[in-house]
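re: that chain from earlier
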Amino acid sequence: MHKRTALVLGGTSGIGRGIAQSFAAHGAEVTITSRDPDRAARTAESIGAAGTPSASGIGLDLCRPEQVADTLLRHGRSFDVVVLNGPGYRPGRISTATSDDFASAYGSMFLSLQQVVSAVVDGMKSQQWGRLLYVSSSSVIAPIDELAVSSVIRSAVNSYLKLLANELAPEGITVNSIIPGRIDTPRVNAVDAARARERGIDADEVRKGAESRIPVGRYGTPEDVGELAAFLCSGRADYLTGSAFRCDGGMTTAL
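^ sequence. v structure.
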């Protein structure tokens, strides 16, 4: 990824930060986003401090999709690689989901990403090369009871990306997804805590139970996902598009 320019949404923590760090380590010039521009700048500084190419941070609120494209266009930089790492929606079961929940999640989880694509894809077309990578969820394989709204919206995003992959392939642009398993992030810890409360047990018990069902015996790290992302966004992955790649330690039982 030497000298490639990469935009990583939600790059200040969790999987987004792991991907940003891997990109920088592989030679990319990384821009990360956060709702808090100061936090984005601080994280970028820490990533760039490891002797890697330049890193920068910008403020971008994915919960306000009507502003996303304009914000990126005002930033004035084109990107070779864009990681669509959008926010999930708060935990909850389908029986408690309201129309407002679905409308809010559709804006932050779908429309915001569509607006990012709209802002960056012309630059990729002009050079006949680009990478769009979506950080998805195992809920697109089997919906997660405690993440009902997210499970529904992520399925819509997957359909959008598959259609986009077909259309952009002749332009030298690939569109893929990563499906993380149980990755040690604040988001997964929040889900574990919700399950623990529901069952009346400690969150550590939930984690131990989950780890017992993962063949490699542990939760993944953001860096595990980052290394897969770096490969898929490199020149070595030119023939891979329209596909979803699991990073779950063998957790998913389906073929």
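Residues 5-181+222-247 form a domain with the Rossmann fold fold (CATH 3.40.50.720).
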